[in-house]
Structures are given as C-alpha cells and as structure tokens.
Amino acid sequence: MGCCRGRNILLFLLVLQLLVVLERQVFDFLGFMWAPIIANFIHIAFLIVGIFGVLQYRSPYVVTYSVWCLIWFGINLFIMALYLEVDKVTHKDDWLSLSTGHQSFWSENGIGCKTVTANVNDGATEASKIEGCLLDFEFVESIQSGAECVLAFAGFWLGCWVARTFTEEDDHFDFIGGFDYNSAHQPPTKSSRMQMQPL
C-alpha cells in the first residue's frame, strides 16, 4: 500500500515537473537562450524515462531519473548564481545564450515593463531602456530556477524511496521450477541410455 501511495506521489511530481519545464522551455525559446533550451530538452527526456519507470514498476529507470535530479539541481543552482551574480559569475557574460547576444525573454517583456526611448545627440540616435518592471528579470529567472531546484530535490528523495520499495516488493518467481529455488539450478536427470560425451 505504501508503494502505491509513493508511486502516485512521484507520478504527480513527474507530471508537475514536466509542466514546469515545458513552461520554462517556451520562454527560453522566446528569448533564444540556447544553453537552457538544450538542458530543458535533456530534462524532458529524463522525465519521460522516470514516468515510464514509475508506470512500469522499473526501479532502474526511477534510479536513473533520481540521479539526473541531482545533476538538474546543480544546473539550476548555477543558473541562479548567474542571474543573482554570486561572486564573479554573471549573466552578462552571455553564457546562457551561447554567445549569441540574446537576453532572457523577461528582460524586455516582464510584468509592467515599458520601453522608453530617448533621443541622444540632438535626435540623431535613439536609445531605449526598460523601466517600470514589477519584478526584474533576474529575479524572475531565479524564481524559475528555484522552483526547479525544489522539484528536483523532492524528485531525488521520492525517486530513491520508490525505487527502493519497488526492489523490496519484487517477488522473484521462478517460472521454470515453480517455488522451489534449487530446481531451476540443478541439471536434469538423464533417463536415456545414450550419454553425450565431449569430443
């Protein structure tokens, strides 16, 4: 009974992670953030492996998903460090767009953001800047990565627990010899008069 409840909770968590990463993937595509796009695709593949493992009671697949959750946790911690500019890492180094010069979708299209243009040098050139954002894009991206960290942490522990319960509740029925463990491992007796000899 405990396995079914844990299995259902893990399945719910996997579907929730899939929805969150698909939302993130859409906004990364809109901002041409290529490194997170690639990482999100890999994460989606491991989520599918995890869903298959949970539905088919395959503990190796669930363990694979759990190990990926640790890696995904580290990736999202790194993204949070980039956007919050922890120590010397910064998102301005253009690592996330793979040096293509693109920025996050939220940098120009955040909630309440307005583009203000100003004339520079007597109207010859115009410069635009973003003002009035309700929440800066660095915080929006960090919140998304933080949510992924929480889900990955929960997925790791829940995946390990479900994989362990799958292994404990696995009954190894021997279809060849029935319930007798040694019957499948003993050579059959030969009733024939003809003995086979090696050449």
UniProtKB/TrEMBL annotation:
Pfam families found in the cross-reference section: NKAIN
Key words, A-Z: Cell membrane, Membrane, Transmembrane, Transmembrane helix
Coiled-coil regions listed: none
Residue ranges of the TM segments: 34-55, 62-84
Subcellular location: Cell membrane
Entry membrane topology: Multi-pass membrane protein
Main location: membrane
Family (UniProt): Belongs to the NKAIN family.
Protein name, UniProt field: Sodium/potassium-transporting ATPase subunit beta-1-interacting protein
Organism per entry: Porites lobata
Taxonomic placement: Eukaryota, Metazoa, Cnidaria, Anthozoa, Hexacorallia
